[in-house]
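User: structure tokens for this one?
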Amino acid sequence: MLTVIIPTHERHFILKRTIAYWQEKPIKVVILDSSAVAYSFTSLPNNISYRHLPGMRFAEKILSGIELIEHPNIALCPDDDFLNSDLLLSSDSLMQKRSDIAISFGKFFRFTSDNYQQFEYAGRPIPWPKLKGDLDIDVKKFATRYTQVLWSLYRKDVLKNAFHAIELANFDNDNFIELTISLTALASGQLNMVDDVWGIRQADIDGNWGERHVRIQDVNHGDFKKLKVVLKDYVSENIISLFQRYYISRVGPYGVLERYKRRYGYGVVKRHDAIVKGHPFCKDVTQFLEYFTE
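Assistant:
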């Protein structure tokens, strides 16, 4: 059965909601908690397990979870997001039929605590890049239209290789975690980019992943050097240098990452609005939040 790994750290206030959301899904869930004190619960649903790993670092925590799972594909999900289980299962089915697919991911939308019936696109709306299967070309296409890949569905070996590299590197900038995953996936097979609502996240919750982000720029020489060392068995130094150049080219004069060109603006925003409007998964999340917040 497909398994979702949910890492958490000192955020017990959100776990009741997390467990309530996943308990009815036909998917196994492993919660990996590195908090100093274990989460207190009387019982867990049959499809959910909990491991207390006090003080364990993020990459080491993920690697420990991978070892518990026999299924060929594994999803990662933060403790405050809602992933679309239908898309997870259909993507898992496709990946089991096509071993060339390294990773599956889709579009994220977000809401705030004062309006969980209204969703907007998380980040900048960009068209998916059309990849060609040529690594030199695809690195340029993906880096210039970069989107998040951390919270995705992975082929198990891709996830394991990426997080072994992340653990070895011990990056100063956490954004290099996603770059490591992107490059490992690009070098390991096809990217299944699903043009649908993959996940929904709460934008204003305390301690979310985005609060820790520091934009990657050319000044991160040490981390780029580490990236080339830890990925040398999977990705050539030339490919990493290409990715660095095209990724950095999107950083504006104030260090703000430009996730799309202006010509993609209004029309693409309207298209993303159309995707989310009336979407059954969005309706399901709204209904869940209405029930849970009573």
